[in-house]
Design brief:
Order of helices and strands of chain C: EEEHEEHEHHHEHEHEEHH
Helix content of chain C: 25-40%
Distance between the termini of chain C: 33 Å
Bound molecules: adenosine-5'-triphosphate, magnesium ion
Number of helices of chain B: 10
Number of helices of chain C: 9
Strand order of the largest sheet of chain C: 6-7-8-3-9-10
Strand content of chain B: under 5%
CATH superfamily of chain B: MetI-like
Structural class of chain B: mainly alpha
Radius of gyration of chain C: 18 Å
Strand content of chain C: 25-35%
Oligomer: heterotrimer
Chains: A mainly alpha (227), B mainly alpha (221), C alpha/beta (247)
C-alpha cells in the first residue's frame, strides 16, 4: 500500500463511510436541533435580561450581573456535569439533551446580555431624550429607537459569540446526547477507523464555515461603528 | 434544602477530595501556563500572516483560521487524540491537548490581533516608514503596541475562554481539575466535588471576568 | 540664480491609482537650501507628488533623483532612502504610545543604531530646536496640535535629512497655533534646509519660498518665483485659483 492509500484507508475509507453515514446524518440533525433551540432561547433570554437591566433597579441588576459573571467564569462542561449527575440525586431526572440545552442557553444568554447591554449603552442619551419628548414610553423608546440602533453594534460580536457557544453542542458527547461528535466517536470505536471522525469534522465545517464567513463579513461591515 | 446541601455542598466529601482536587488544579494551571503563551504567540504569527501584503501568505492563513474557528474544540481534540493514532501518530494526552489548543487558540487570538492591527490608521505606518524603519520594525515598535492596547479587553476575555477550555482535557483523560472532580464524583456518587471544581474556576476566573468588563467599559467610553 | 545645485530632480513623473491619473508628467527641480511651495486645488496631486518623493508611493513611470541618486530604481534600499528624506504629515502621526522624546528616539535607535544616551541627546537637541525642550517627557495627547506638529518635525530632523517634505503641516491646526509651526519652518529655511511644502498659507509662501509651483489635475500649470506667481500669474487657471484662495 502506498502512503496515500494508507491515508485514504485511515481517514476516508469508503466502506466505513457507507456504513456510518446514516448515523452521522442523524447526529448532524440532533446538533442542528440543539443549536437552533439554544440560539433562539439564549438570545431571547439575553435580550430580555438586557432590557430588564436598562430599567436600572438595583435589586434586579445585581443578580443579573452576578449571573453573567458566573456564566462567563465557569466552563460549560462543569455546569453540564453538575446538572446531569447532581440533579438525579435530588430525584430530578433530566435527559442529557435537556441539560445540554439548558446550560448552553444560560451561557449564551449571559454573553448576549453583556453584548446587548453594551449596545444599549452606546446609544447616545440624546436619542432617549428625543424619543421621550415625543411621548414614547420607556419600553417603546427601547424597542423602537434604542435597540434598532444598538443592534448595529451587537450583530458582529453576537454572531461570533453565538458560533463559539453553538459549537459547544459537541459537549453533549460527554453526557450521551446522540449529537454529531458522539455518533462519530461511537462509530469510530466500532469501525476501529478514523473515518467517522473525519466525516464529523467535515460535517462541522459544512455547518459552521458559512456562519463563520458571515460573521467575518458582518464584522467588516460594522467595523466603522466601533471607533 | 438539606438534600441540596448534602448532594452539592457536602463538606465531608469535599475535605476527602481536597488532595486530589488540589493536584488537578495544579495540572490545570500547568496546562494554562503552556497553552496561553503558545496561543498568544501562535496568534501573533497568524495575525502577521493575515495582514501580510502578499496574497499567497494571506489567503491560506485566512482559510485555516476559518476552518479552526468552525470546528468545535472538543471535536478537534478528539480528532487529534483518538483519530491520529489510526494513522500511527500517538500523542500523550498532554501533547494532544496542547496541540489542539495551539491550533484552535492561534486562530482566535490571531483574529483579535488582526482586528487590533487594522484599527491603527495607515498614517502611523507611513510616519514610521518615512523615518526609515522597516516594515517589520514599524509593526513591532509602532503598530503592535497600539494594536494590543486597543484589543486588550478582547485578549483578556479570550484568555478566560482558553482557561475554561482546558476543562475539555478531562474528556481525553488528562488529570486536570475537572477530571479529578469527576473521578471523585464517580467514587462518592455525589456532585460536591464538581461544585468544588466550579469554585476553583471561580476563584481563578472571576477576577479576570471583572477585569475584562472593566476594560471593555473603559475602552468604549 | 547662476549656480543652482539641484538636490531634488523630478523628471516626467507619472502615477496612477487604478484608473485615476494622479500625476501626469511632473518635471521639477529644487536647489539646495531652497523652499519649493506646491499649491493647487484639492485632488490636483500635491500629496501624491510628495509621497512619491519619499517612496510611500511607487511612481508608474518617470524618475526622481535625490542628490544625484535615482530613488525610483527598482532594487534600492527604501529604508535608507527614506531616512534621508524627512516627511511631515497633516495629521502629525505621532506615536501615541511614546513620549515626545520617545517619538524622536525610535528611528535614531532602530534605524541608525545609536545608543540610548546618544539618541536621547540628539532628541533633546532637536526638540530644543523646535522650542519644545520642556515638553520632552509629554505624550502626544498631552500636547497641543501645534506642539505635536513641532515634535513631528523634530522627529524627521533628527535623522539629518537632505530634504524635508511637508504635506499641509498646518491644515489640522487651530488658527492661533499655525504661527508657531510656520516659525519653525522659517527657521529651518534660514538654517539652509531644502524643503518642499504643500500648504495653503499663501502669505507664508510669499515671504519665505523661493519657488512656487501651481498644480492642477496632475500637471504643473505654472511655476516661478513667488512674486511672479502671486502678482503676475500667466495662466487663467492660476488666476482663478488664487482669487478663490485669497477669498
Ligand atoms: N490611495 C489612493 N487610491 C486611489 N486614488 C487616490 C489615492 N490617493 C489619491 N488618489 C487620487 O489621486 C488624485 C490626487 O490626490 P492627492 O491626494 O495627491 O491630491 P491633493 O492635491 O493632495 O489634494 P488635497 O488638497 O485634497 O490634499 C485624486 O484624484 C485622488 O482622488
Ligand atoms: Mg493632499
Amino acid at each position: 500500500m502506498t502512503r496515500f492509500d494508507r491515508f485514504i484507508d485511515t481517514f476516508f475509507k469508503p466502506e466505513v463511510m457507507q456504513q456510518y453515514w446514516p448515523d452521522i446524518v442523524s447526529g448532524l440533525f440532533v446538533t442542528c436541533q440543539i443549536a437552533i433551540l439554544v440560539i433562539v432561547s439564549g438570545i431571547s433570554l439575553g435580550l430580555a435580561l438586557a432590557i430588564l437591566r436598562s430599567y436600572g433597579f438595583k435589586v434586579i441588576n445585581l443578580p443579573i450581573v452576578i449571573f453573567v459573571d458566573l456564566l462567563r467564569a465557569l466552563p460549560p462542561l462543569v455546569l453540564i456535569l453538575i446538572l446531569y449527575f447532581g440533579l438525579p440525586n435530588l430525584g430530578i431526572n433530566l435527559s442529557g439533551f435537556l441539560v445540554l440545552w439548558m446550560v448552553l442557553t444560560l451561557v449564551l444568554a449571559a454573553f448576549a446580555e453583556e453584548i446587548f447591554w453594551a449596545g444599549i449603552l452606546s446609544v447616545p442619551e440624546g436619542q432617549w431624550q428625543a424619543a421621550r419628548s415625543t411621548g414614547l414610553g420607556r419600553f417603546q423608546t427601547l424597542i423602537y429607537v434604542v435597540i434598532p440602533q444598538a443592534v448595529r453594534m451587537t450583530v458582529a460580536p453576537l454572531t461570533n459569540r453565538t458560533i463559539a457557544i453553538t459549537k459547544n453542542t459537541a459537549l453533549g458527547m460527554v453526557i450521551g446526547v446522540p449529537e454529531l461528535l458522539n455518533q462519530a466517536t461511537t462509530a469510530q470505536s466500532f469501525a476501529a477507523n478514523a473515518t467517522p471522525l473525519m466525516m464529523a469534522t467535515i460535517a462541522y465545517l459544512i455547518l459552521f464555515i458559512p456562519v463563520v464567513y458571515a460573521g467575518r463579513r458582518l464584522e467588516k461591515a460594522y467595523a466603522w461603528r466601533r471607533h | 434544602m438539606e438534600q441540596i446541601l448534602f448532594q452539592f455542598f457536602n463538606l465531608d466529601i469535599m475535605i476527602q477530595a481536597w488532595p486530589i482536587m488540589l493536584r488537578g488544579f495544579g495540572m490545570t494551571l500547568l496546562l494554562c501556563i503552556v497553552v496561553i503563551p503558545s496561543g498568544l504567540l501562535g496568534g501573533l504569527v497568524v495575525a502577521l500572516a493575515s495582514t501580510s501584503e502578499k496574497r499567497w501568505i494571506r489567503w491560506p492563513v485566512a482559510v485555516l483560521v476559518d476552518i479552526f474557528r468552525a470546528i468545535p474544540p472538543l471535536a478537534l481534540l478528539i480528532m487529534i487524540s483518538a483519530g491520529l493514532p489510526f494513522a500511527g501518530i500517538r500523542l500523550s494526552p498532554f501533547t494532544a491537548v496542547c496541540l489542539s489548543f495551539l491550533l484552535n487558540n492561534s486562530a482566535y487570538y490571531g483574529e483579535i490581533y488582526r482586528a487590533g492591527i487594522e484599527s491603527i490608521g495607515t498614517g502611523q505606518d507611513e510616519a514610521a516608514r518615512s523615518t526609515g524603519l522597516t516594515g517589520f520594525q514599524s509593526m513591532v515598535y509602532v503598530i503592535l503596541p497600539q494594536a494590543v492596547r486597543n484589543v486588550l479587553p478582547d485578549l483578556v476575555s479570550n484568555t478566560i475562554e482558553v482557561v475554561k477550555l482546558t476543562s475539555l482535557a478531562s474528556v481525553v483523560a488528562f488529570a486536570e481539575l475537572l477530571y479529578s472532580a469527576d473521578m471523585a464524583r464517580s467514587v462518592t456518587y455525589n456532585a460536591s466535588p464538581i461544585v468544588m471544581a466550579a469554585c476553583f474556576y471561580l476563584v481563578l476566573l472571576w477576577p479576570a471576568v471583572r477585569l475584562a468588563s472593566r476594560l471593555e467599559r473603559k475602552l468604549s467610553t | 540664480m547662476s549656480q543652482r545645485l539641484p538636490i531634488l530632480t523630478i523628471d516626467n513623473l507619472h502615477l496612477r491609482y487604478g484608473d485615476v491619473d494622479a500625476l501626469r508628467g511632473i518635471t521639477l527641480e529644487a536647489g539646495t537650501g531652497e523652499m519649493t511651495f506646491l499649491i493647487g486645488p484639492s485632488g490636483s496631486g500635491k500629496s501624491s507628488l510628495l509621497r512619491c518623493c519619499n517612496r510611500l508611493e511607487t511612481p508608474t513611470s518617470g524618475k526622481i533623483y535625490v542628490d544625484g541618486e535615482d530613488i525610483t530604481q527598482r532594487y534600492i534600499n527604501l529604508n535608507r532612502v527614506r531616512r534621508g528624506i524627512g516627511m511631515v504629515f497633516q495629521s502629525f502621526n505621532l506615536y501615541p504610545h511614546m513620549s515626545a522624546k520617545g517619538n524622536v528616539m525610535l528611528a535614531l535607535r532602530k534605524v541608525l543604531g545609536k545608543s540610548r544616551a546618544e539618541a536621547e541627546a540628539i532628541a533633546l537637541k532637536q526638540l530644543e530646536r523646535v522650542g519644545l525642550s520642556d515638553r520632552a517627557g509629554h505624550y502626544p495627547n498631552q500636547l497641543s496640535g501645534g506642539q505635536q506638529q513641532r515634535v513631528a518635525i523634530a522627529r524627521s530632523l533628527a535623522l539629518e535629512p537632505k530634504i524635508m517634505l511637508f504635506d499641509e503641516p498646518t491644515s489640522a491646526l487651530d488658527p492661533e497655533l499655525v504661527g508657531e509651526v510656520l516659525k519653525v519652518m522659517r527657521q529651518l529655511k534660514d538654517d539652509g534646509m531644502t524643503m518642499v511644502v504643500v500648504s495653503h498659507e499663501m502669505r507664508f509662501a510669499k515671504a519665505a519660498s523661493d519657488h512656487v509651483v501651481f498644480m492642477a489635475e496632475g500637471q504643473i500649470v505654472e511655476a516661478g518665483p513667488p512674486a511672479q506667481i502671486f502678482d503676475e500669474p500667466v495662466a487663467e487657471r492660476t488666476r482663478t485659483f488664487l482669487q478663490e484662495a485669497y477669498h
